[in-house]
């Protein structure tokens, strides 16, 4: 009997060991399978990341090729002042002639200096055409008044701006990235004042109103209109008008047709 008990105990231990061995083999198999799958997943993920990175680098390289660093723009695009680094513009005699020309235009009473009263007289000429809305008229006046006070100080008959002072101021504007973008902020009001039918484009007859308000003869208006109307359709859109008006102040390229915008240049 004792022998039988020992034999049964051995069998029981053997069965238990076999079951444990099977369980261990199963567990190891699962672990190996999991490890294999995780390895495959990692390889797949790594491959996807590498592919994504490669695509991004390719797109970046394409972007660099699509926009060359030294790309030039046509005369119908942004002004060359937007392409150059600020700090070195406004040194040419040609640019100084243009600014002196504008100073002479604003000097309505032709006493050699600019006062706020000169601006008031010029604004009233455009308002008197009767094409500006009440809001545009008010905004136009407020824009000039705010600019004068901010730049030149109080509004008095004795606060006068000479040619030299105005040249110095415009040189500062030209080399300031923020100020140069607002150098033409008053020009859309001038366009709306001469656009009699409010069509968004002006004919030669309407353009003559512009030069008349500036105190310039009709022959100068003809020359300027033909130059600015580059496609010869007999019309100038507000986009063209504002662009050439802005270019007059910011470009030093003597070949730009914007040099005719405010009439003949002074000597």
Automatic annotation (TrEMBL):
Provide the residue span(s) of the region labelled Disordered: 68-89
Gene Ontology annotations of biological process type: calcium import into the mitochondrion
Q: What is this protein called?
A: EF-hand domain-containing protein
Instruction: State the family it belongs to.
Output: Belongs to the MICU1 family. MICU1 subfamily.
Give a Gene Ontology cellular component term annotated to this protein: mitochondrial intermembrane space
The EF-hand domain extends over 94-129, 182-217, 218-251
**Record-linked SMART domains:** EFh
A Pfam family recorded for this sequence: EF-hand_5
Q: Where does it localize?
A: Mitochondrion inner membrane; Mitochondrion intermembrane space
Instruction: Spell out the CDD domains in the cross-references.
Output: EFh (cd00051)
Q: Does the keyword Mitochondrion apply?
A: yes
